[in-house]
Amino acid sequence: MQKSTLVRLKDDLEIKKPVMLVGLPGVGLVGKLVAEHLVGELEAEKIMEVYSPHFPPQVLVNKDCTVRLVSNMIYHGKANGNDVLFLVGDHQSTTSHGHYELCSLYLDVAEEFKVPRIYTLGGYPTGKLTYDETVLGVANDTKLIEEIKNYGVKFREFEPSGGIVGASGLLVAFSRMRGIEAACLMGMTPGYLMDPKSAQSLLKVICKIFDIEVNMTSLEKKAEEMESIMKKLKEKEEQLSFQEVKSTEEDLCYIG
Amino acid sequence: MQKSTLVRLKDDLEIKKPVMLVGLPGVGLVGKLVAEHLVGELEAEKIMEVYSPHFPPQVLVNKDCTVRLVSNMIYHGKANGNDVLFLVGDHQSTTSHGHYELCSLYLDVAEEFKVPRIYTLGGYPTGKLTYDETVLGVANDTKLIEEIKNYGVKFREFEPSGGIVGASGLLVAFSRMRGIEAACLMGMTPGYLMDPKSAQSLLKVICKIFDIEVNMTSLEKKAEEMESIMKKLKEKEEQLSFQEVKSTEEDLCYIG
Amino acid sequence: MQKSTLVRLKDDLEIKKPVMLVGLPGVGLVGKLVAEHLVGELEAEKIMEVYSPHFPPQVLVNKDCTVRLVSNMIYHGKANGNDVLFLVGDHQSTTSHGHYELCSLYLDVAEEFKVPRIYTLGGYPTGKLTYDETVLGVANDTKLIEEIKNYGVKFREFEPSGGIVGASGLLVAFSRMRGIEAACLMGMTPGYLMDPKSAQSLLKVICKIFDIEVNMTSLEKKAEEMESIMKKLKEKEEQLSFQEVKSTEEDLCYIG
Amino acid sequence: MQKSTLVRLKDDLEIKKPVMLVGLPGVGLVGKLVAEHLVGELEAEKIMEVYSPHFPPQVLVNKDCTVRLVSNMIYHGKANGNDVLFLVGDHQSTTSHGHYELCSLYLDVAEEFKVPRIYTLGGYPTGKLTYDETVLGVANDTKLIEEIKNYGVKFREFEPSGGIVGASGLLVAFSRMRGIEAACLMGMTPGYLMDPKSAQSLLKVICKIFDIEVNMTSLEKKAEEMESIMKKLKEKEEQLSFQEVKSTEEDLCYIG
Fold it and tell me: What ipTM does this complex have?
């Protein structure tokens, strides 16, 4: 357990050239929300667990009060008859070295299953509190970019201008070195809080790509909850601004 | 000394299937207080020392002005005729990697002595200044949970909701992979200061588990000292709040 | 990809005793600006890429929305008929260990091509907002210092007094151990922002050393942009000071 | 250069059972000041250099504008006819792991030369601005403590209560494991600034131990300079307190 370790939970897997979908925690938890929603809706089955000393030294508590080590997991499911591998997890690496080590391990798995294409999912932080349903993309191949444009994904020159930090970006770059097509699809999001609304926009694109339909009720419910939280935050903000105006007026009182 | 190192202080140890009790420094020092109190009361004997470059690069000074390297130690004692190993220490690992390495080393020792069960002790931070004598538990096995409930330990779904960071949690998760039963028992504590009162609550549970009685005078004395410190802190806090109210009134003076 | 890795893009390179010019990101981006400007003007060709887990775990996005891994690169060009190697890049190492590892790797390349001399380029932070066109130098050999003085580079006892952190300094020190002459040339710069004006001063010195002339239009344009930004910053600063004075006067109002 | 490396500058050294004196940078630079003063006064000769990726990735600039890599160095000198090794340097390790690695390397050198005793020198931070000429000690052997008391070194139970961080402490603890007597001697110091006055107190003790006399003029001069700086700091502090009192009075003005 002192190196990143892959634990196989199933023997004799029959998986044919699966597309790999990666939704690890990141900006707005957008990618994680989408991938885990699909794991649930498509009743995908956990086939592998990944443990690593590059994850936080932490356990999480299950409903029945047993614990499990922080991990990443690979699920196998079917979308419209085609095999799909889902890479999801509790945390990304806490170190730069770990990012390189873990992404390398994930691509070993991808090669083992002859994965022809990888989609990594994430959020693109806008820094604004307004909603934007755009899904932005980058990829490791210009042909792939042309294809993905058909699903409504936007591609903007040099964007994200600050690059992409973490597994979502690294996997796309590393995939090229292994001859695997890969794209990173990002839902626009304020970036401050979990964003199930942005996740819905991204999920719609994924559904088009896989030519499937999935129930989004749980995401919609989460989105409503978050919207009500954001509304309260906004109200507080406005109150604060109002108070500032008031206190400025008061400040003026004793000067004149 | 460039890797974590186990130093054996005794040969020919006759220890039969000992339960292991782990009390390393953590929230409120609750686990450390309980384990070290038992080491003293049960006159346990130090049998191993663990040194590691993952501990801070620090020495501590003894009463006679000699120094000793920061370390973790394993003691051997008897509780009601049964062998017990106590894992205590000055520090936990300062790195994530070190946590994985050291927990692995501790479980090698547990396997060597055929330890059937491990209790890791810790504190559960409530963030409130009021006292709560609850002892909360998690475990690596549902049967074990049922058994431990009999000793008054509470189990709450998904709690601690933030998981458990450090050796107390990792050892429970890793134990499962080695076929060792393990539970983490946590005294509720404000979490800001050393909490000997929470340690007493936890110690009472441990005494029930081991079917022993121990003198708690020293813990009670420490608890009284801490209570007097907390009382002073609270008074200061109230004074501060009172001043705030006053200063608000004063602010109003020169506006009107 | 779990160690620093050199990727060769060209076979059968015919390069004769090239001088190596190093312009990695650093204070005011002065060294990077100069080296990348020369790579462009001399139409140097990329011959090697260096990847490392000591760089940030990040990809950058190209104009066509493909991504590339953060890297350092070596270019080959000709200056006045002589071979020159340019070492440029997106980032320096994020760890101390990585600095040692990468500098070692760069000097392996230098030895392979029988590089007789290395110039590392950087900025010298003055902490003042005024412009200074001085270029300051240090070297690993006193004869080399005498030679470089002829190109207008200034050498001041014990300066920079705080030493030089990063690859620019390490490469000069390590070069000596490999019998390679090396000097670090630093443009004076406020150090807060990208400084294309300081880069121009440094570039002029490099042109003298290589006995070449290069078009500086793009650097001049960047310098104008930065000057307009700095002007705005200064104005804001003055406004703020003015406001402070005013508010002090206002404060006085209600006391008297 | 990717591991800590010892470079030998001299062959055929004739050194008989030398005492080792360690003065690396630390609290108040007390140990460094004392050891480097002795290196100068006893005209000790540099015999080894230690480089390490655990030092900052930095070069320092000499008077003649050549650079040298940050390093630790071992000097050989004679005190009253007896051989002495001095371990001095620019920096301590920046990582916990590096502290363990480097101390191990230093003790390999000590064993090679059959060093019978090591004194590590340091400062003991009092947190007060008043001067205290006490020299405090800890050691790895009670007999050694009794001997050193004769030189005026004070030993206080459990002090320093927070232990000793860094090479000064580790070397004393590690020495015991190698059968080498070792003590850490600490000059009391405010701990905020370089403290040549505390260094003088410590140097006097060392002179007694080695039965030598050394010229202290340069340390006295440095002490005077620092005293004048501290005087100015105190004046500023008092001015500030005075202003606070004034401003409190002014605050009261507009309330009443």
Answer: 0.88
